[in-house]
Amino acid sequence: MPTVAPMLFRRREERGQALVEFALLLPVVLLLIVGAVEFSFVWNSRNTVLFASRDGSMLAAEGGSLPGTDCLVLNRIERDIVSPARAIRVQDVAIYWADRNGGQIGPYMNVYDRSGATTCDLGGSTFTVPYTLTTAGYPESNRCDVLAGCGGQHTGVDTIGVRITYEHQWLTSFARLTGSGVTFAETTATRAEPQL
Prior knowledge:
This protein is of the alpha+beta class.
């Protein structure tokens, strides 16, 4: 019988030890879970903005030098950015003359800030986009969509790039302790559709 009492005493110590270990590991486990949730929301927002950039770039390439192409691109970007990302978090959209790798060529760039409003009229269809042109360095009329080139630096069909700058704000209050969020930009460049 003397062996039973020490055995019971040891089990109580082990139960207390497990509780202490659990209390020490719980904050680490919760931090990993919150980090995984935040990372998944950031990744989803990034993919949404990348899709909007690709869609806008293809639309800009199809429109080429037609008036109103930028308005169509901005309207499409607004419609493409869906939950959990929010179009209101777009800071600016740049439409620019790009090289084959998507890098900007010279100062040829239109930058639209997400402030104010621009009304677009396209052949009787009128709509408003929540963007204001702040830098006008690449007007639609200067874009080359002629296969033989347009003269000057335009020796062939332009490649048109679209860059969207987006601010993702943290969704959990625990992550907000590190700051308000993260800002990233997604870029896509597409060769303009040539006109013969």
